[in-house]
Design brief:
The complex is a heterodimer of chains A (693) and B (160).
Chain A: E1 4-9, E2 12-17, H1 22-28, E3 52-55, E4 62-63, E5 74-76, H2 80-93, H3 111-118, E6 136-137, E7 142-144, H4 154-162, E8 168-171, E9 178-181, H5 194-198, E10 204-206, E11 219-224, E12 233-239, E13 242-247, H6 261-265, E14 280-283, E15 286-289, H7 292-308, E16 313-316, H8 323-336, E17 342-343, H9 350-356, H10 369-372, E18 375-379, H11 383-386, H12 388-401, E19 404-409, E20 421-424, H13 438-442, E21 446-451, H14 458-469, E22 473-478, H15 485-490, E23 497-498, E24 502-503, H16 511-516, E25 522-526, E26 543-548, H17 553-557, E27 560-563, E28 572-575, E29 580-584, H18 596-607, H19 616-626, H20 634-638, E30 643-644, H21 671-675, H22 678-682
Parallel strand pairs in A: 1-5, 16-17, 16-25, 18-19, 18-21, 19-20, 21-22, 25-26, 26-27
Antiparallel strand pairs in A: 1-2, 3-4, 3-5, 6-7, 7-10, 8-9, 11-12, 12-13, 14-15, 14-27, 23-24, 28-29, 29-30
Helix pairs in contact in A: 7-18, 8-18, 8-19
Chain B: H1 5-16, H2 27-38, H3 43-53, H4 57-66, E1 78-83, H5 86-90, H6 93-104, E2 110-111, E3 117-122, E4 134-136, E5 139-141, H7 146-159
Helix pairs in contact in B: 2-3
The chains are: A alpha/beta (693), B alpha+beta (160).
Chain lengths: 693, 160
């Protein structure tokens, strides 16, 4: 335990660990000291002079962001002297600030504006003409207006320290000083837009949001990002059913305020011109628009007919639908269609891990564990690109706690920058290199192991055996790729495992078998694109029903296409890569679409299946009751928290590791959704490559 | 790129002066000497210095923007720097600078079309006792007057 110090702040006694900065201690005591350059979690800059406080026996005002609390110190944060100093600071900051608040994006949520109001500054003594520099576009997503900039360095620090990107700098001097991008006149970076978020003024603005709205005109909807599997909470700013921006400024959720380019900007596929907004039914060989009633009738008719003659069904589920939809879909298949021919695109071998960790609790890591663990081992994943949140957590852990990070990957990754050791190994042979790390790992207090799609089958068991042999606490993360890949596995979108990894009596066909089976009568594809890249169903005559957002290759082959909602448009829960279940709420609306749960519910009613009420609350109740590991506390979910589902236990089946195929999405691609996101395809870094320097 | 053998030797000595991992300290002198030899801090120079000192390009750009004595574009053969800071201003530095502008037909941080002269208004040159002061490349000229400046420019023209 660190040494504690006790000091007085505004008449209150506060005890904090030695070394705590006065501004942090004040926050713990509920006292808000204003600051621009100070930013929690990042290095001290002490550049803005806003957090000055009066400390007894110190002759001058002190910057509380750079002053460690000491025993017996007496601090006053809001004396007339302090207020006077802050007024002067703001007067200086406003010397060249254009005060174009009425047109500035930041107006209404601007820290400089708030402080100017708080300290009641209506006048300035400066009469000189303001120094002005024109606005610059650094990328399709990031704009910089130097005139508004107050040079707090927040953007520079989040980019450098937070991401390891270091794409921003500060150059020139005096009034001409401004932020500069890494490539002269433009930026080449992760395009995550974190710099825009942390900007206390409107100097950095977002290409998607600028000059579009005002903060008080929008509704804020807590959603879970639909792109990668990290499950970042992204707060959608919605106006008239349209998403205008996405961020997470309130730091609710597992990701704090971090979002990558996909979470922050990749929402525009929702309002793409190419979204399907009406069901399509094949007539005379062509897909033609139809009403919902008609399309459902055609689909239900063909399904009823196939059931009548004992036909064969195949169901391909989605990695981007909610847990409720996945659960309902497998129920629809197993109890309604009476088939176990159900599968989805698997992107990580979690099944073997579940089985290998039978009987253990606390063996699966959470996102927060990556920030608190003493050591981490990354196998076969370009973490900064494929799992940006996990990478940021590990980096913050290294920065704040000197965690040791070990990487074994087929090529260079960003984690090499700070890794305690980086090894290169062919994809699939990562586990064979572990012995080289044994001594180093044994010396650590605990370990989190993250493994990508190349570690599968027996390798996972060997990995767990290696972890056990170290004699330290080891937790695991199976790096699956899509927003609800874990949910699809947990909810039993598998031919041989029902929800909660319970083996079924007669296993059905897996994905490859379905693709190759010539005699299927109905193929039902919910939010997946198995025909991507020119593949075909061997069953030429099968009736194909597809729920989709876009007219993908699979939708083009369909006989009935039902326009579905994206994750941002519906209510329910999703499970992230670490098994954390979070609730997502419906934000925007796209005319003509329905949620997959509604579609399945309507069809179940038409077909006379008794599958329970298709409402997300009712289905989730059932999931909590029946699915192993999912009896998660509801209050946590209801308040926007994340509760980990740990379904570890026996899964005595062949894990079918050969079906594990990584998405190989980079930071700028996101399967089908990415193709329809102009923002993601527009940036010059797209599509990017994995394991490149 | 490589520099002249003399400069290479100088760089080698300079870099070795700093303890391991702190080679970055050689950044400003390296840029200055490289500029003297190459004529400007070109993209090539930046890349080379970045590589040798293991400093990101962006960090070098930060330094270049901050220090006025480092230039990205070549200056004139004779770079005239005229001080207009307090002591020089009081003793006619500003008039001297304006005179130089008229005489050469160029403004602050500009270059004559023949590339012979460039002009810059600078802050204190540290020669207040002999104000107004100016500098031509690395040579100081003290207690300047417009007449002395005319003679200086003429003599430089003859040197060409």
């Amino acid at each position: 335990m660190a040494k504690m110090v006790t000091f007085t702040i505004d008449g209150r006694q506060v005890t904090v660990p030695a070394g705590t900065l006065v501004i942090d201690a004040a926050k713990q005591a509920g006292i808000d000291i204003p600051a621009f350059c100070y930013y929690e979690g990042f290095s001290v800059q002490a550049a803005c002079r806003m957090c000055l406080v009066e400390v007894e026996k110190m002759p001058k005002l002190q910057p509380s962001c750079a002053l460690p609390a000491a025993d017996g110190m007496v601090v006053h944060t809001e004396t007339p002297k302090v207020v006077e100093a802050r007024k002067s600071t703001i007067e200086f900051l406003l010397t060249n600030h254009p005060l174009d608040c009425p047109v500035c994006d930041k107006g209404g949520e601007c820290e400089l504006q708030d402080m100017t109001f708080r300290y009641g500054l209506g006048e300035s003594r400066f009469l000189e003409i303001k120094h002005h520099a024109g606005e610059k576009q650094w990328s399709p997503l990031v704009f910089y207006d130097p005139a508004r900039c107050i040079l707090c360095y927040r953007c520079i620090r989040v980019c450098d320290e937070g991401l390891g990107m270091a794409a921003l700098g500060l150059s020139y001097r005096g009034v001409a000083a401004e932020i500069i991008p890494n490539k002269g006149d433009h930026l080449e970076c992760d395009e995550c837009g974190w710099c825009i978020d942390v900007c206390p003024v409107g100097a950095l603005t977002s290409g998607t949001y600028r000059y579009k709205s005002r903060p008080w005109e929008m509704n804020y909807v807590p959603a879970i990002c639909t792109h990668c599997s990290n499950g970042c909470k992204t707060t959608l700013s919605v106006r008239n059913g349209e998403i205008l921006r996405a961020n997470n400024r309130d730091r609710s959720g597992i990701n704090g305020e971090f979002l990558c380019v996909k979470g922050r900007f990749g929402f525009d596929f929702v309002h793409s011109q190419e979204r399907l907004q009406s069901p399509l039914v094949r007539r005379d060989g062509r897909l033609e628009p139809a009403s919902w009633g008609e399309a459902l009738k055609v689909a239900a008719g063909r399904v009823r007919e196939a059931i009548g003659r004992n036909g064969k069904f195949a169901v391909i589920g989605s990695t981007r639908t909610t847990n409720e939809e996945n659960y309902y879909l497998q129920k629809f298949a197993r109890q309604g269609l009476r088939t176990n021919n159900i599968d989805h695109h698997r992107s990580g071998d979690f099944i073997t891990l579940v089985d290998a960790l039978t009987g253990r609790t606390g063996a699966l890591a959470t996102v927060n564990d990556l920030y608190t663990c003493d050591a981490a081992l990354v196998l076969g994943s370009d973490l900064a690109q494929q799992h940006p949140l996990l990478a940021v957590q590990l980096r913050a852990n290294w920065r704040h706690h000197r965690a040791a990070v070990y990487v074994v990957t087929p090529g260079p990754v960003r984690e090499d920058q700070y890794a305690a050791r980086s090894l290169r190994a062919e994809a699939g042979s990562e586990v064979e290199r572990l012995e080289e790390l044994r001594e180093q790992l044994k010396a650590r207090k605990n370990l989190v192991v993250l493994y990508g799609a190349s570690v599968k089958g027996e390798a996972v068991r060997r990995l767990v055996a290696f972890g056990d042999s170290l004699g330290i606490a080891v937790k695991y993360v199976c790096l699956v790729d899509y927003a609800n890949s874990r949910g699809a596995l947990d909810m039993g979108l598998l031919p041989h495992l029902a929800p909660g990894y319970r083996p079924v009596e007669i296993p059905g066909m897996h994905l490859d078998a379905m693709m190759a089976a010539p005699d299927l009568d109905v193929i039902w594809v919910v939010g997946a694109n198995p025909l991507e890249g020119g593949r075909e169903f061997a069953a030429k005559d099968a009736f194909v029903i597809v729920h989709e957002l876009f007219l993908t290759e699979t939708a083009q082959r369909a006989d009935v296409v039902l326009p579905a909602m994206s994750l941002y448009e519906k209510n329910g829960t999703a499970t992230n890569v670490c098994g954390e279940v979070q609730r997502t709420k419906a934000g925007p609306k796209v005319m003509g679409t329905k949620s997959d749960l509604d579609i399945l519910g309507l069809l179940a009613a038409q077909l006379g299946f008794d599958l329970g009420v298709p409402s997300h609350e009712k289905v989730f109740e059932e999931i909590r009751r029946t699915v192993r590991g999912y009896s998660v506390p509801l209050p946590v979910l209801a308040t926007g928290g994340a509760a980990q589902a740990a379904p570890c236990g026996p899964a005595p089946v062949d894990a079918q590791a050969e079906l594990v195929r990584p998405s190989d999405d980079t930071l700028f691609t996101s399967g089908t959704l990415g193709k329809y996101s102009k923002r993601l395809t527009q940036v010059m870094e797209a599509p990017g490559r994995l394991f490149q320097p | 790129m490589t520099f002249s053998p003399e400069l290479e030797a100088k760089f080698a000595k300079m870099i070795a002066n700093y303890p391991p991992g702190r080679q970055k300290g050689a950044l400003i002198p390296m840029l200055l000497y490289a500029q003297d030899e190459v004529g400007a801090v070109t993209d090539e120079v930046i890349d080379e210095v970045s590589r040798r000192l293991n400093v990101p390009r962006l960090e070098i750009e930060e330094v270049l923007g901050y220090y006025t004595m480092l230039a990205r574009e070549p200056r004139g053969k004779y770079h005239l720097q005229i001080c207009t800071n307090v002591s020089c201003m009081l003793t006619g530095g500003e008039e001297l600078f304006e005179h130089a502008c008229r005489k050469l037909g160029i403004g602050n941080r500009q270059k004559t079309p023949d590339g012979q002269f460039s002009l810059e208004e600078v802050e204190c040159l540290g020669a207040c006792s002999w104000a107004p002061a100016m500098q031509v490349n690395y040579d100081f000229h003290y207690q300047m007057t417009p007449e002395k400046l005319d003679r200086l420019i003429e003599s430089l023209r003859k040197l060409q």
